[in-house]
Write a structure and sequence with these properties.
The protein is of the alpha/beta class. The chain has 13 helices and eight strands. Helices cover 52% and strands 12% of the residues. Helix 8 crosses helix 11, helix 8 crosses helix 12 and helix 9 runs antiparallel to helix 10. The N and C termini lie far apart (67 Å).
């Protein structure tokens, strides 16, 4: 099949490469031309230098796959596509959009007869080689049309992807996926810190990770990546302990609150990321001051 890939960052570029290698005709457009030119030269991408040009190089029904950051960039691209596409065309949002925005955008496009498919995509920088896990929301008709591309992008034609529900369902499932990811990452981080703190055993944390990777009930791809990181720098001396969040963990926690579903692990893992960004926590200072007030416990002065 043929489609246009809009946004050629790392994931968008790798998805385009995998599709081209799988025999699909891919038109590509990026806000800056360098990635477009590189993929045209190295992978056989058909270059375009505007959304209008990308659309013009497709035959009906057109498929435009959007891989740009969530929020205003996605809103801008989808709004412009609404003026360029025609009835029966399909827009795919493969980014990390909030599912509520996805439902709204789908309704806006539906009024013009344009179909909208949300593909929650996991796989990161490894997707080019390993394939992508894709949670797909949208109509049966639109998803069926996209099946050849989805089967090429997935780890196998019948594995790692699925049509999970109507418009918005794909991004909703991906949101929860990322919330779970926060919790798993936090559990590994805490466990390895406990082992590192047990200095009298002088544990080789990379060795432990490698042991756990095979046969253990806690084995996972995240553990594989942990082992990779520890093999490169056992003390992680070159990394600052500052952990950002893309927003999906926040959305998962908010959804849990709205649905009255207890989610303490995911919530704590989100808050732990907030803690990582504080150079000097006022809350921690206040805790020290309170201990000093009620029990005379010593406080460490800043020297100012």
């Amino acid at each position: 099949m043929e489609l246009a890939m809009i946004g050629l960052g790392k994931m968008g570029a790798n998805m385009a490469r995998r599709l081209i290698k799988g025999g699909h005709r891919v038109v590509g457009y990026n806000l800056t031309p360098e990635p477009t030119n590189t993929l045209a030269r190295e992978a056989g991408l058909i270059p375009a230098y505007s959304l209008a040009e990308a659309v013009s190089k497709l035959s009906a029904p057109r498929v435009v796959w959007v891989m740009v950051p969530a929020g205003k960039p996605t809103e801008s691209v989808v709004s412009e596509l609404a003026t360029l596409l025609q009835r029966g065309d399909i827009v795919v949002d493969g980014g990390n959009s909030n599912y509520k925005d996805t439902i709204r955008r789908g309704q806006m496009l539906a009024e013009k007869g344009i179909q909208f498919v949300d593909v929650g995509t996991s796989g990161g920088v490894w997707g080019l080689r390993e394939g992508y896990s894709m949670m797909v929301g949208g109509s049966e008709t639109a998803v069926s049309h996209l099946r050849p591309a989805l089967e090429t992008l997935a780890p196998a034609p019948n594995k790692g992807w699925g049509h999970v529900g109507p418009g918005g369902a794909g991004h909703f499932v991906k949101m929860v996926h990322n919330g779970i990811e926060y919790g798993l990452m936090q559990a590994y981080a805490e466990g390895f810190e406990i082992m590192k703190a047990k200095t009298d055993f002088d544990l080789d944390l990379h060795q432990v990770a490698e042991i756990w990777r095979f046969g253990s009930v806690v084995r996972s791809w995240l553990l594989d990546l942990t082992a990779n990181a520890l093999s490169e720098d056992a003390d992680l001396s070159g990394i600052k302990g500052y952990v950002p969040d893309s927003g999906e963990g926040r959305w998962t926690v908010q959804e849990a609150i709205d649905l009255d579903v207890p989610a303490p692990v995911i919530t704590h893992s989100l808050f732990a990321r907030f803690v990582s960004r504080q150079e000097d926590s006022f809350a921690a200072k206040l805790l020290a001051a309170m201990r000093n007030q009620f029990g005379g416990h010593a406080v460490i002065k800043t020297g100012k």
